[in-house]
Amino acid sequence: PVIEIMRIGADTVLVSITNSRDRKRRWSTAFEMEIMPPVKSPTWSWQSSTLLSTYSDEFDNYLDGLSSLELLTRDLIWKIIEYVPEAVFQLRATSRTLRSQVDSFALQPATVPLVKELVFTGAISRFLSPTLDVSMYVPKGKSALFELRLKLREPLHGSNTTVHRTHFALSGRPNIYNANLNTVIDDENSWAHLRGAIGRRIEKVAMNQCITRETLLTISAMLETIKFKKLKVANDQLSSTFAKVITRTVIKCEVDHLFMSFRKLVFRKVNPVAFLIDLSTFVKSMHLYQSEKKTEFDASRKFFFGCEDIEWAPVFLEMFSRRLNKLCIENYTYPLYLTRDSADALRKRLPQMKKKFWFASTCEAYPNGLNYTSNSHLVQASDNELGSRFFTVKYASREKERFVF
């Protein structure tokens, strides 16, 4: 990148940054920044005049040897790094002054999100391995700064955690950094530098087959200080420990959108219905996907989320009375879980509540279909692209919305 600095006022400069290495992806940006006025020199007595003169000459010589970029204030240099994080290693190699400035910036809490997605993958079986795989998806333009943050945070005594980078040949695809954690042996010092390098804010977190208690507690500790909007969970089974960790994570990490894919619930100390209602207090949208082994189900059962033969309308209405305004349920195995009575209650009550709702669920209560509008809400029952019948109640302006995780 090319950096140009021009004074446009007594205390103001205009900084322009241009990247012209690739004509197809050329970009530029500019911003104004105030310059701090120089600090007035203290008054010296005649006894110190000789010493002051010597120091002044040395300082003038030092300033004469600095480039225009090195003479910028720390705040301005840090602002430049924010705009061109891919140039941190080139800036570090320029001089000791800039190296110190870049390292100081990299050791600060991240001011911009560096990691787009953080993925935790556990062992398929709790008996196979205590290893937890951590994948960090970092946009290419921010990879250099992320690598520097990793390097500067490595423990002095070394770490059991090694980070490997994977490149994608396609432009626009992020770099993936992988690390393996032993959830039994490794302590916090083994992976704390990962958390420090990641920063305090990312876009999305995913948990795949994170079943064991040790795995869930490690993830919970690692996410302790990180904020993110999307949480995706794909587990074969959901346990009581899982429910507690997810609830804690949703609250502390300020999650807005939650996706959960599951086959079986093994809640011993947690009420499934109460768990869903509690989550609805904190998230804006929820997507629940229930799967089942094809040889182990009876399609005539009215079964969902560990509950048999209950009316779900009161539960969903209670969930919508809280922060939740968007709910999608895919239960292809047991589509009869949502009875005609519950579906009728939802299509009557939801349009009358003071919210712009978005609700969709697999449902076979209306074989002849539905298609009408009630209080600006579209009420429909029809087959989707795969031939499965869905029942939906959506505010008119939200009809085209989709769940994207």
DSSP strand tally: 20
End-to-end gap: 34 Å
The outline comes out as globular
For the largest beta sheet, what order do the strands appear in spatially? Answer: 6-7-5-4-8-9-11-13-16-17-20-19-18
Largest sheet: 13 strands, mixed
Helix content: 25-40%
**Unreliably modeled segments:** 38-44
Strand content: 25-35%
Which class do the helix and strand fractions yield?
Answer: alpha/beta
- Rg over CA atoms, rounded to whole Å, is 28 Å
Mean pLDDT: 80
Q: Total number of helical segments?
A: 11
Protein name: F-box domain-containing protein
Write the layout of secondary structure elements.
Elements: E1 2-7, E2 12-19, E3 27-34, H1 49-64, H2 74-83, H3 88-92, H4 96-107, E4 117-121, E5 131-138, H5 140-152, E6 164-166, E7 175-182, H6 188-198, E8 204-208, H7 213-222, E9 230-234, E10 237-239, H8 240-252, E11 257-262, E12 264-266, H9 272-280, E13 285-290, E14 303-304, E15 307-308, H10 313-320, E16 326-330, H11 340-349, E17 358-362, E18 370-374, E19 377-383, E20 389-395
Helix pairs in contact: 5-6, 7-8, 9-10, 10-11
Characterise the protein shown here.
- This is F-box domain-containing protein.
- It comes from Pristionchus mayeri.
- This protein is of the alpha/beta class and 405 residues long.
- The chain has a domain at 1-33 and 65-108.
- The chain is built from eleven helices and 20 strands.
- Helix 7 runs parallel beside helix 8 (240-252) and helix 10 packs parallel to helix 11 (340-349).
- It starts with a strand and ends in a 10-residue tail after the last strand.
- Residues 38-44 have low confidence and may be disordered.
